[in-house]
Design a protein that fits this description.
A: 7 helices; B: 627 residues; mainly alpha; 24 helices; 2% strand
Chain lengths: 155, 627
């Protein structure tokens, strides 16, 4: 999956997320380079097809790192978080299924997973309705109790 | 107090009189022997404490004397008169002065020893008598000459001899009748106890006592000083003259007391030349209990040998009393009352136990692991029953005295030298143990282990490798229940029973682990199930931890809450989890984790992290494949 158009908007919303994404991509590329080097060292005649392609990391993985940084980063302000949530709401509203699935599974799920470290209740009022609905559905789908403040907002 | 002071004076006077008499006798005998240096006479020396003389008695004993003060005053007068006469006859001047001084001193001491109680009229009289006796002694001292100084020396020698005799008898009496010693050893029963541990304990105690009494009984006498003080009484002296273990000494039936009750000569006879406690009567008794033979000249015990305990091999200190090489009799432990020692159920001697006629290799002096040279089947156990003798220890370690090769026992048995019984085609089932025909009790040549030697009719008391109780608890059912126990024998890797093609071998069964390994697919399925149910793995790497946190949803009820579980659920049900499909996320993390595990930089990661990543990769793959 190629990089979506809204990716730049997402990284522009928060420097912390941008830093995290850069680190992810760098690590991914470094891993790719290490593997290629090792394979070529072991077998210099290895075909290019057999070598790992130089590409971008999976979008869900990148979104997952951003979601973890969104919940745990201390360098991230609430204003940045509100801006990020606005981009997420936009993707859920105007993105395709793959993009929406990637945002929900890649970003919203990690944010909810860090509920013990990050209290979304404080920002729940800045969360878009689609995002709120998706959060409640994730909680319900996994069989996790939905908090009252979350359930009340969706009713 | 008065009576006591008078008695003290009387004693002094009496001693002076006796000394004067003896001096006169010696003067006749050794007339002309002069120039002897005058020494302190026995009269002037206070009686040593605890020597058994009346002077050594305590004040309380003196007070307890039934004599009245008048009688004592009278006796004091008589003693004083005699002393005056004798002293006037035979005492020299200087010696008399010394006597007078010592007498004065004695009188002062006696006065002081009487304490500060009120003085009675009897005490005043006794003081008068004391003055009179002192005057008489002073007169006698004035009239004595220098010749008798030698006589006094001889007198002292005689008194010393008498004291020594008295002390020697007091020691014997003290050891015999000391009430504290009875209290001390009252828990001890004179019989040999049942347990070997008790024997050893007693042996140690006897050693300690013999060592303590080794110095001519002085140490023992010190311990029994109270009895020694009462030893001067004539009746006690008679008892002291009695041999240890004699009349009226119930405690002397104890070997320990017999040993310590003896004097130096008796002790020497017991312990032998230069021996320690090993040659004591107790040691001899224990030794005889072990092997029935008395050592000829064994002065030092042989090194401790190892035994095999019930719960496994251990190196317990067992006494080897020597003479084991040539012994052929079974060293059965028996108590003095003929009962089998309870230690036989605890320890099984495998050291120098004389092997039975069937035992080819007696194990001597080293720890032997419980080696099972051959698997033992029911048939074999039946065939080897004659090889060992019931009891304990005769057969050495288990496995000896086997009756057949294995299984059907077609080869002549080592144990009895006879051919094994005709092999049975169908070995007896496990229930045969209850019929009493099971000769497993003789297995291991009569091990006393109750687990090895189950009682007839008690299938639960079976050997370690055969546990019908467990099988009866549920594992044995249906067709397995009809299988004989010979097939249920646990077989080790080096067990020849693996060679099922061997002639006469019982059809071997693979161990359970081998059976499990034979179905790898089932095992993998089992591992997959476990992997699906695994919780979020703990990883050290922070990047990995972030990924795991992203993939695992705490508190989820879909599988284990992982992305793989969601993907699996979606594959199985065709329904989304949380309104979205999770296969894309699973695929993305699978790709990332595969790259991480392929990254050579992560080759140095902790094994736990790598294992966790590998398991998650497997789980994701399985989930994406619909497994």
């Amino acid at each position: 999956m190629s990089v979506p158009s809204w990716w730049a908007d997402l990284l522009a919303a928060s420097d912390a997320l941008a830093t995290t994404d850069r680190a992810q991509v760098q690590d991914w590329n470094s891993a790719t380079e290490s593997i290629r080097t090792q394979k070529l060292r072991n077998d210099p005649e290895t075909a290019e097809e057999e070598l790992p392609a130089v590409d971008d990391p999976p979008l869900t993985v990148r979104l997952g790192a951003l979601g973890a940084a969104f919940a745990t980063s201390k360098n991230m302000t609430n204003a940045e978080r509100v801006r990020v949530l606005a981009v997420v709401e936009k993707v859920l509203d105007s993105g395709d299924d793959a993009e929406r699935t990637a945002v929900v599974t890649g970003f919203l799920e990690p944010v909810l997973n860090y509920s013990d470290k990050f209290d979304l209740h404080a920002l729940w009022g800045f969360v878009g309705p689609l995002t709120q609905h998706q959060c409640v559905e994730l909680q319900t789908g996994w069989g996790i109790d939905v908090p009252d403040w979350m359930a009340a907002a969706t009713q | 107090m008065c009576a006591m002071s008078v008695k003290g004076c009387a004693e002094v006077a009496g001693q002076v009189a006796v000394g004067a008499t003896m001096a006169a006798l010696f003067g006749l005998w050794s007339a002309g022997t002069a120039n002897a240096r005058p020494v302190d006479g026995p009269v002037s020396q206070p009686a040593p404490t605890g020597s058994g003389t009346p002077a050594g008695r305590t004040d309380a004993q003196r007070v307890a004397e039934p004599k009245s003060s008048n009688e004592e005053v009278h006796s004091a007068k008589v003693y004083a008169a005699k002393a005056q006469q004798n002293a006037a006859k035979s005492s020299d001047k200087d010696d008399g002065e010394q006597k007078a001084k010592s007498t004065d001193k004695k009188g002062d001491d006696s006065k002081q020893s009487k304490g500060s109680g009120g003085r009675s009229s009897g005490e005043l009289e006794s003081s008068k008598e004391e003055k009179q006796s002192t005057k008489a002694q002073q007169n006698a001292a004035k009239s004595s000459d220098d010749k008798l100084s030698d006589d006094q020396l001889r007198r002292k020698a005689l008194s010393t001899q008498q004291k020594e005799k008295t002390q020697a008898s007091a020691k014997g009496v003290g050891m015999t009748v000391k009430p504290t010693s009875a209290t001390q050893f009252s828990p001890y029963t004179p019989k040999i106890s049942d347990a070997v541990g008790t024997k050893l304990e007693r042996l140690d105690r006897s050693q300690k006592l013999s060592n303590t009494a080794g110095g001519g009984g002085v140490a023992v006498s010190d311990q029994l000083g109270e009895a020694r003080r009462t030893a001067v009484k004539p009746d006690r002296e008679k008892k002291a003259a009695e041999p240890p273990g004699g009349t009226g000494a119930g405690l002397l039936s104890s070997p320990i007391l017999s040993q310590q009750g003896g004097d130096a000569s008796t002790k020497k006879a017991n312990t032998g030349s230069g021996s320690t406690g090993w040659q004591s009567p107790l040691a001899k008794e224990i030794r005889d209990a072990y092997d029935g033979t008395a050592p000829t000249s064994g002065t030092q015990p042989k090194p401790l040998t190892c035994v095999v305990a019930v719960a496994g091999p251990s190196c317990l200190p067992t006494i080897d009393f020597g003479g084991s090489s040539g012994r052929t009799s079974a060293p059965e432990l028996k108590t003095s009352d003929g009962r089998s020692p309870s230690a036989g159920s605890i320890l099984e001697r495998h050291t120098d136990s004389p092997a039975p006629a069937a035992s080819p290799k007696p194990v001597v002096g080293k720890l032997q692991p419980p080696v099972q040279p051959e698997p033992r089947t029911q048939v074999q156990q039946n065939s080897e029953g004659e090889g060992g003798k019931k009891g304990k220890g005769e057969g050495g370690k288990k496995g000896e005295g086997e009756g057949g090769e294995k299984g059907k026992g077609t080869t002549p048995g080592k144990g009895n030298g006879k051919p094994a019984p005709k092999p049975k085609e169908n070995p007896e089932p496990a229930d045969s143990a209850a019929t009493g025909k099971d000769t497993r009790s003789a297995r291991g040549a009569g091990s006393s282990d109750p687990e090895r030697n189950p009682k007839p009719g008690d299938p639960c008391k079976s050997p370690k490798e055969i546990n019908p109780c467990k099988k009866a608890a549920g594992k044995k059912s249906g067709a397995d229940a009809a299988k004989p126990d010979s097939e249920n024998v646990h077989m080790s890797e080096n067990s020849p029973a693996y060679d099922s093609s061997a002639p006469g071998a019982v059809e071997s069964r693979a161990p359970e682990l081998a059976r499990a390994a034979s179905n790898r697919a089932l095992f993998e399925q089992y591992r997959n199930i476990l992997r699906r149910e695994m919780t979020k793995p703990y990883v050290v790497d922070s990047q990995l931890r972030g990924w795991m946190d992203t993939m695992w949803r705490p508190g989820a009820k879909i599988g284990n809450g992982s992305t793989a579980a969601a993907a699996r659920f979606e594959k199985m049900t065709g329904q989304q989890v949380g309104g979205v499909w999770h296969s894309g996320k699973a695929r993305g993390f699978l790709t990332r984790l595969e790259k991480w595990i392929a990254d050579p930089r992560n080759a140095e990661a902790t094994p736990g992290d790598r294992a966790a990543v590998e398991n998650v990769i497997r789980d994701l793959r399985d989930a994406l494949e619909g497994n």
